[in-house]
């Protein structure tokens, strides 16, 4: 039963990951710029989910390819027409989301909160990618994540056989958000306000399994961030005061904490 659940979760994650490249492309802009609404060639983009392809560019590329075939009898390219993001990056999104969902299913088993983790996991992967690319955590993702986490866990709390506690999830969301807000006030250059808003949603997720899980997930986030920063310094790719995106480490730490909490529940 668990094996089938893990396979199904991995397939869900892979399918969801295939829908993330367009959103990752559109959200990956510096904070002072609006979201991208065109492909690099200037064609308007419709929607936020889907593959990293521009249909008008694809049509143009196909027409060009057909002309080349007629003229030379072959097409000298391996790239998919109309792509406005690297194919390897799109594949990485698909694989990462699949692995995250499979790991969550293996840890959670048949408990009903697994549905919440599988719904939130693609958003977490998307946030990590966007923040890593441009050091930005969009409100359009962090705020709905927090609201959805609390609302969905509140619904799961009414279902038999769940293993968490919704009031603790709420208190943890408020506590972690307040703690990160205090860090932001103390050192605005070292902690972005997007991290504060992300901490609210992650606090709810971690708090579902108790305060111990909150501590594990938070500690793991800071440890991973410190290790990454130290490695960059050792490789001379950054200085001690170089700003790095903390969102991916917050999400990775929450993922690890959630696995520990789910296994221990």
Q: What share of residues is helical? A: 55-70%
Q: Give the helix/strand class.
A: mainly alpha
Unreliable runs: 73-81
Looking at the structure, what is the overall shape? globular
- Reading the helices and strands in chain order gives HHHHHHHHHH
What's the number of helices? Answer: 10
Write down the Rg: 21 Å
In percent, how much strand structure appears in the residues? under 5%
Q: Biggest sheet, in brief?
A: none
β-strand number: 0
Terminal-residue CA separation? 19 Å
Mean pLDDT across all residues, rounded?
A: 88
Walkthrough of the structure:
Helix 1 packs antiparallel against helix 4. The chain has 10 helices and no strands. It has helices at residues 2-18, 21-27, 55-72, 87-108, 114-134, 139-156, 166-186, 193-207, 211-234, 247-264. The longest helix is centred in the last third of the chain and has 24 residues, at 211-234. It starts with a helix and ends with a helix. By secondary structure, the protein is mainly α.
